[in-house]
Specification:
By secondary structure, the protein is an alpha/beta fold. It has two domains: about 15-85, Orthogonal Bundle (Arc Repressor Mutant, subunit A); about 110-285, Rossmann fold. About 55% of the residues lie in helices and about 10% in strands. It has 14 helices and five strands. Strands 2-1-3-4-5 form a five-stranded parallel beta sheet, sandwiched between helices.
Length: about 290
């Protein structure tokens, strides 16, 4: 999930030790356990599909393995492994050292964000950006779905498309997102944003939208994420940030920049956008001194 909390108790034995001692595992789950125990740092970098492939198992097997360890899912496994395989400063920001002063930390974090954006420029799939922009332009209704740290990005995207005269909404409640997805029809678009691409609630909204005939698009950091299999259009925008930064801010900056690119593309091609923007600016001046 995009929620960084985990259910592993603070006083539990190290996770890798729990993996070694895990009992009652099927043959396939034992393969997952061996992969996790032998290459924990590599697992932190993987998507759930990557771990399934590396252990010659399935996504469902990985999920069951995590549950037998008392975890809510694969994301909790990654977080717990990250905490064990890297010191705190490595989990917070690449290149930062414990003795750095505030100025050094700021420069390193900003440089890391700049590198992430530069990497995204080279890696972005221009044809997919074009396809998502076309879908938004042709949509009757646009429903955004996201939770946790991806939610503010979805709220901003929905608001900005609304200023262009498009019917875009972001219900903050995850249950309402799911219910709203059920009310979509062919000609509507469900646009999900999920850094991990493994958040159950967001995937459920996308799958529901797809079953009722709506178009589905997702923005995620990992090409092999489960949400990619649930959508028609998949925008992958991650970064080369260190594996230990499972919830790194740089990934959100990359997503925000790509959403801005979509907004500009739609604004330039949507004929009523100019008048809609002018009306929005007039209204907003009433709220300023």
């Amino acid at each position: 999930m995009d929620d960084p909390s985990t259910t592993v108790p603070a006083d539990s034995p190290p996770l890798r030790e729990l993996v070694r001692r895990a009992s009652g595992l099927s043959t396939a789950e034992q393969r997952v356990a061996r992969t996790v125990a032998e290459t924990p740092a590599e697992v932190v970098q993987m998507s759930v599909s990557d771990l399934a492939a590396a252990s010659q198992s399935s996504v469902g097997t990985v999920a069951r393995f995590c549950q037998k360890l008392g975890l809510r899912g694969f994301h909790d496994l990654k977080l717990a492994l990250a905490r064990e395989t890297a010191p705190t400063h490595r989990r917070l920001a690449e290149d930062v050292a414990p003795g750095d002063d505030a100025g050094q930390i700021a420069r390193k974090v900003l440089s890391g964000s700049a590198r992430a954006l530069d990497d995204a420029v080279r890696a972005v799939d221009a044809a997919m950006v074009e396809a998502v922009a076309d879908a938004l332009l042709g949509a009757r209704r646009i429903l955004f779905a996201a939770v946790g740290t991806s939610a503010p990005l979805a709220a901003d995207a929905a608001y900005r498309l609304t200023t262009l005269g498009l019917d875009a909404v972001f219900p903050g409640d995850t249950h309402l997102q799911h219910v709203s997805a059920r009310t979509l029809r062919p000609g509507d678009v469900c646009f999900a944003i999920s850094h991990t691409g493994a958040t159950r609630e967001t995937i459920a909204a996308v799958r529901t939208a797809r079953t009722v005939g709506a178009s589905t698009a997702v923005l995620t950091s990992f090409a092999g994420a489960p949400i990619a299999d649930a959508a028609d259009l998949v925008l992958v925008a991650g970064s080369s940030e260190t594996a230990y930064r499972v919830e790194a801010m740089s990934s959100r900056l990359v997503h925000l920049a790509l959403l801005d690119a979509l907004y500009v593309t739609v604004a330039l091609r949507h004929a009523p956008a100019r008048d809609a923007l002018a009306a929005t600016e007039d209204l907003l001046t009433e709220h300023r001194y």
